[in-house]
Write a structure and sequence with these properties.
It is a single chain. With about 575 residues, the chain is α+β, with helices and mostly antiparallel strands. The chain folds into 2 domains: about 160 residues, Penicillin-binding protein 2a (Domain 2) (Alpha-Beta Complex); about 325 residues, Beta-lactamase (3-Layer(aba) Sandwich), CATH 3.40.710.10. The chain has 20 helices and 21 strands. α1 packs across α2 and α14 packs across α16. The C terminus is likely disordered.
Length: about 575
């Protein structure tokens, strides 16, 4: 072969190879990217997915809490949380001072956090920011700073309904009140979706939703915010007026047992808990117990009537205004002399009640109180609910029987006392209390016969009339009835002579009771501490407004018109 032929052959081979290279490249690209070949496409696809495809949590909203009319008491609003992967942060572009300024945090503290977390993979930068504030940080375009949507709990009623509703922590878990009691029902179940992200963590394409988010269950309470505000307002005014340590009020539907209002003092703002103390957090109406004192006397009189040993014409001689039982002297403010059963209630006679109890078995008194729900959990489901104490003895010491007859040596919560008084509004049947809107019949327990109950409610009405111990509980346009209570508080060495709890339990209107209210004022100022002076006026204010707002027909006006005719 000649030298020319050799060169021509080499040139042809080189030309063929050069021409084949683009074809080989195209074939390789098709092999890797177009044709579903396992060793090519799937390998590279996995590598790409590992770097860009992510599973993103999709948060869901916690259940709504509303009052009985649908007014929101706890809502979840979308917010933005910023987080950082310190290993991915572009520290050359990081302007800590500018971020601190936007987030309104201390520059030195934020810088120290970045240094402390530098070798970790996660750090919260700020949680629950408004979208606009979070966007200001994101616009700094610092690699390694990411955002995610969360929900923040907001309480429109603020401190007015704080003790009932409660609050959640920053992670959306219930900590107090209904938020804690029904946390499992309220909590939402987050969903998830597969997405493609760019190098800065931004979602550029959604692949699919793997799991749909499930919002929490909505809860409707029995509370009526119109009445709740009135109860809160008048209780707070009384706290200031009487310089009291604490207080509670419950307003209950007499027929259904639904709690329409429940307020406590001191209270707190669940939207800003930076300065909240443990004392402010307690829902005292459910958690705190006290000796119910004279509010128990109607139940003792009811037991006396049920025993058959007494009737409405029975006379009890209370002279000389005191009586000695074992080593204890029981006294009345004055010598009331001979009294019928109604007058014992009207004047709240300790001596008269004691003489009734001396004629009764202890279990006759206790059984009536137990039927009224004393010494038993109401079953509200509220965290920290107290059961109270209603003693039981195989053999009753005489003095313990006597003190129980007028509400000492036992304890009750305000909610238990309100529930007990539903018996007077339902022909002698006690209705179970509830914090949730009821659908259907309310469970009931017989406490008195209808005949005895009619006699007791007539006695309760005399308490607020001239000559009774609670004239300040009278209403402007409705008849009312109830019972005062003033109990010494227990100190380190027995009962304290200068510390009291004042309370009033009552119902209205008396022709057909619609509402029940219990007012408790803890440690009012020493110059005014009787239930008739301190708690009764709050009852009057709240009950009058509540009956008007629920459009109850005035029965006092009707009675006056009949008298005029």
């Amino acid at each position: 072969m000649s030298e020319y032929q050799t060169a021509s052959w080499r040139f042809g081979v080189v030309t063929a190879v050069m021409a084949a290279l683009p074809l080989a490249l195209v074939a390789r690209m098709a092999y890797l990217q177009i044709l579903p070949v396992e060793q090519g496409y799937e390998f590279l696809q996995k590598e790409a997915d590992a770097r860009s495809v992510r599973t993103v949590e999709e948060p869901a909203s916690r259940g709504l809490i509303t009052d009985r009319n649908g007014q929101p008491l706890a809502v979840s609003t979308p917010v933005t949380t910023l987080w950082v992967n310190p290993r991915h942060v572009d520290y050359d572009a990081l302007d800590v001072r500018e971020i601190a300024k936007i987030l309104d945090v201390d520059f030195g503290e934020l810088k120290a956090r970045f240094n402390r977390y530098r070798n970790r993979q996660f750090m919260y930068l700020a949680r629950h920011l408004s979208p606009s504030q979070a966007q200001q940080v994101l616009e700094l375009d610092v690699r390694g700073i990411y955002s995610q949507r969360e929900y923040k709990r907001f309480y429109p009623a603020g401190e007015v309904a704080a003790h009932v509703v409660g609050f959640t922590n920053i992670d959306g878990q219930g900590q107090e009140g209904i938020e804690l009691a029904l946390n499992e029902q309220l909590v939402a179940e987050s969903g998830s979706r597969r997405v493609v992200k760019d190098l800065k963590g931004n979602v550029i394409r959604e692949i699919r939703q793997e799991k749909a988010p499930q919002p929490g269950t909505d809860i409707r309470l029995s509370i009526d915010m119109r009445l709740q505000f009135q109860a809160y307002r008048y209780l707070k005014e009384a706290m200031v007026r009487y310089q009291a340590k604490a207080g509670s009020i419950i307003l209950m539907d007499a027929k259904s047992g639904e709690v329409l209002a429940m307020a406590n003092q001191p209270s707190y703002n669940p939207n800003n808990r930076s300065t909240v103390t443990g004392e402010q957090l307690r829902n005292r109406a459910i958690t705190d117990v006290f000796e119910p004192g004279s509010t128990m006397k109607p139940f003792t009189v009811g037991a006396a009537l049920a025993s058959g040993k007494f009737d409405m014409t029975s006379i009890v001689d209370t002279s000389p205004g005191r009586i000695r039982v074992r080593n204890k002297t029981i006294v009345d403010p004055v010598n009331y002399g001979e009294m019928d059963l109604a007058k014992i209630i009207t004047k709240s006679s300790q001596v008269g009640t004691t003489k009734l109890a001396l004629e009764l078995e202890a279990d006759e008194i206790r059984d009536v109180m137990a039927s009224a729900g004393l010494g038993q959990a109401v079953g509200s489901g509220f965290p920290g609910e107290s059961v109270g104490v209603l003693p039981y003895r195989d053999k009753w010491p005489l003095l313990e029987k006597i003190t129980m007859s007028y509400g000492y040596g036992m304890s009750s919560t305000a909610l238990q006392l309100a529930q007990a008084y539903t018996a007077f509004a339902n022909d002698g049947e006690r209705v179970e209390a509830t914090l949730f809107k009821r659908n259907g019949e309310s469970p009931k327990t017989r406490v008195f016969s209808k005949e005895i109950n009619d006699e007791l409610t007539a006695m309760l009405q005399t308490v607020v009339e001239p000559g009774g111990t609670a004239k300040r509980a009278q209403l402007q346009s409705f008849t009312a009835g109830g019972k005062t209570g003033t109990a010494h508080k227990v100190g380190k060495h027995g009962y304290d002579d200068h510390r009291y709890t004042a309370f009033f339990a009552g119902l209205a209107p008396m022709n057909d009771p619609k509402l029940i209210a219990v007012v408790v004022i803890d440690e009012p100022s020493q110059d005014r501490y009787y239930g008739g002076e301190v708690a009764a006026p709050v009852f009057s204010q709240v009950m009058q407004r509540a009956l008007e707002m629920t459009q109850t027909a005035p029965d006092k006006a009707a009675a006056n018109e009949v008298a005029t005719l």
